[in-house]
């Protein structure tokens, strides 16, 4: 909802749902004023009084605001305001205002740049003053402005803060240097979220955000003094993110009693990070390619989610680091090119991501819980130990050093992994504009191509839901099913008939169309005679197989492309 401009008259967006009437029969059971009358044969009449309790209206306004923040559009949020008077009042105080200078200037092309900018300034003034005079609070205020409008921020944020401002997001576009944040911001005591991009504070002494929960800093000058000041004056911070900032060399974060998440992304000149936060459960660290940064996370024993993108990290350091996190549930390693042989003994691990760790050869793992795997690389690593797999995603592509001669060896290792860890799973393979579904199959077809994607899921997935998900997301030209004679997937595939098939159509509104409305034709074909497919399986012995092979050709409308999801609120030719 960041880009949604919500106004106080959002209730007018609610559309009524038609209802039907019928004549009441004499013997109908009536429910009047909470009295339910019911009479059964041979049993005396019993009256039961049922008190209707509106539990949802008893929620605090802050909780209602939190619920509304997850709704994707202002129209949907406005509809929820009819639940009760309390929700309607909460909706009025739930304004999310976004002012984007560049977008506004593009709409008034007939005027000069100065006139358009003045119109933009006036529109912000009028909107904020309207909220002030109507005594409407602002849940979130977003500014996307150029340096020419920096001086106006003092007035605008001051007006917004007069009735209570929840979250503030300021981004200075196209700025070669950092502009000083005016002192107005330090006086807004109601702020719970603050996001700054391309600015800097002029004075650390005035910093005091007693209610701040989220703080995102991007392309700012940040130093250790500022972090220490925040720890002493903002005790409620739970989420701290520092992105592409300068000024930090040796960062120590301590004193935050409620801090749960810290993100550090490509901060210039950073040499050491030490976190002394026992409440921390999520840490994401991304180093610059050429930098070397040491991490000290020994005090973070409650850590559950860890993401590391550190090209200089070694096997020894990582293996020692992971030993400190007994409750770790999610681990993602990305672009850690010095890793070769790692050991993961975190028994509570539920999700493992290995992405573009180009020199990683062996992963020795021991997990107890079912674990999901997300792997991206040029070659498949060798997995040792105990891995109780829940689901898996793979993405393969050759690098510049590899050639076509390396593909068979790569596919052989993939085959070995799938046979050992994925027995009884449904295996889906993407290549070009085609999808292969292996269900209860003894053979796995991996085309000898440089780029492959695989998805491994439990075979208990309903075949109709499986096909519906694939067709909604990918819109392939062909679906190939390799299965046993007892599999239900080929049967579900035969039921796909094309445009508006009522057995598959999942449309729940007139504005949102599912894939059925974009499919022009679906036809079962012979894979051996299909141009562009049979050649991909050269040498894979398609004939005389134990499994049965079903191939369907799909013809989509010209506007629909492979791998591009169907739009939600438009026709296929015009999307809003």
Automatic annotation (TrEMBL):
The UniProt record lists the F-box domain at 59-100
Q: Which domain of life is it from?
A: Eukaryota
UniProt xrefs under Gene3D superfamilies: 1.20.1280.50, Ribonuclease Inhibitor
**What's one Pfam family here?**
F-box
Q: What is this protein called?
A: F-box/LRR-repeat protein At5g02700
Gene name, Swiss-Prot/TrEMBL: LOC111457769
